């Protein structure tokens, strides 16, 4: 199992999403956080299992929300979550976060 480190900007994006859903309902926030946590656990358990993208990155799609978890395997034991990307955002905006 790989450790999943979160880029500071990815943390900020997750917080923004949480705040957006909190305006609607706490139940929606709980569902979002549950899917986010499941995504992080799934990425850590099997990082190579999800859709490959450019620059060695991969995506995990949250099943019920318009968000992708964009990540990079740094080595066999570490994954870096680069972005919690809303699917309406400009693709690749997170590339400047690559190490």
Characterise the protein shown here.
A hairpin with a 4-residue loop joins β2 and β3. 35% of the residues lie in helices and 29% in strands. The protein has one domain (3-92): 2-Layer Sandwich (YaeB-like fold), CATH 3.30.2310. It is globular and about 40 Å long. α1 (8-22) packs antiparallel against α2 (26-45). It has a five-stranded mixed β-sheet with strand order 1-5-4-3-2. The mean pLDDT is 97. The protein is α+β, with helices and mostly antiparallel strands and 99 residues long. This is Type II toxin-antitoxin system RelE/ParE family toxin.
Offer a few descriptive terms.
99 residues; alpha+beta; YaeB-like fold; five-stranded mixed sheet; 2 helices
The end-to-end distance, rounded to whole angstroms, is 21 Å
Low-confidence stretches: none
Total domains: 1
- Count of DSSP strands: 5
Keywords: Toxin-antitoxin system
Pfam families: ParE_toxin
InterPro entries: RelE/ParE_toxin, RelE/ParE_toxin_dom_sf
Protein name: Type II toxin-antitoxin system RelE/ParE family toxin
